[in-house]
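Ticket reopened. Same input as before:
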Amino acid sequence: MSVKRCSLVCMLALAVPEPVLAHSPIKGIGNFYNGLLHPLFVPAHLLLLIALGLFIGQKGMYENRAAFAVFLVTTAIGLIGAWFSVGGEMDIVLLSAAAIIGLLLASNLSIGLYFSAIIAALVGLLVGIDSAQETLSGTVKLVTLFGSGVGINLLLLYSMGFADYFNKKPWQKIGVRVIGSWVAASSLLVLALSYSLVSTK
Amino acid sequence: MKARHFQSLAMAAIIIAYASAASAHEGVGITGGFSSGFMHPILGWDHVIAMVAVGLWGAFLGSPAIWVLPVVFPLVMAFGGALGVMGIPIPAVETGIAASAVVLGAMVAFAVRPPIWVAAVIVGAFAIFHGHAHGTELPSAANPLAYSLGFVIATGLLHLCGIAFGLVVRWPAGKIAVQAGGGIIALAGVGFLTGIV
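Engineering reply: fixed in the latest deploy. New output:
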């Protein structure tokens, strides 16, 4: 092949560009990472987990370690439920929980270790159950759900650590409360929309 | 002749290489919902100046107003937004938004320092108008949750702009600059109210 022809082939090959999607949902990254990223791509999960993590971290990560332990266990139970597809449509429940926890975070209300643990347990269960992958089966489903479990717990841990670290800093501590008010406001708006859609039916 | 033919083909190939996908309906899904929500307060100048004024007034009043107002505002705005979503009308929403710029700008310009609860009530009352305007758009959003998150975050960042500017109030020249900023916001609000702007 001549140099000219070779160059022409190369240029024609360039003529079929495809966008680079480093974290697209999500071909080519494998089932584990698909599951891992699942809580990041479901806005209701993302809001709820960030709100809960910041709330627990706001009260002290070490003092509230029981809440995280309980969350870990109930997430696993929820994911087992997801394996059997026990959950239905749960967006309203998830958003209600996000609104309540967002308000608790914004008001910096102290509700005690036991209530924190109960809230963490319920959230873990809800998010776990709502992570069902109905289109998958067998080993693929198992690996994806395992990835989701890791992703859910990592997201909570990051948020907890973030808030715990900022607890010692006056301005950033306020920023955490502002995020709480954002979560609560967004959730309340979508709940209002859901209510208006139901009432107009 | 052959060389010219090759050059034409090469040029055509290079031009095609710059082609990207046509996105006729870009505003879809989570990203579309978030970006349209995020841009909604930023593209409306009446929203922008009023939100900056909230942050500016908070910084001017000092602690605790500097953080109470940005925490209270989104929550009350959500109430106004809920009214908008449910189709409950509020009279003169656009007038209320323009009036918010006039009143909040004037508060900063004249260095008014009311008790914190009075400031919170004033800001909260105007937040209902702003929330209603954003909330009315919510049902048609590509992803309502991402849209609401977008406009709430954009509103918070506009407050932050005002707070950042307001922090110069600790210096004498800075205080004059902040009060002048408040005056400009109030005048712009008058412009929106009268339809000049």
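The CA atoms of residues 45 and 167 of chain B lie 23 Å apart. Chain B touches chain A at residues 6, 9-10, 13-14, 16-17, 19-21, 30, 67, 70-75, 77-79, 81-82, 85-87, 135, 138-139, 143-146, 148-149, 152-153, 156 (CB under 8 Å). Please confirm and we'll close it.
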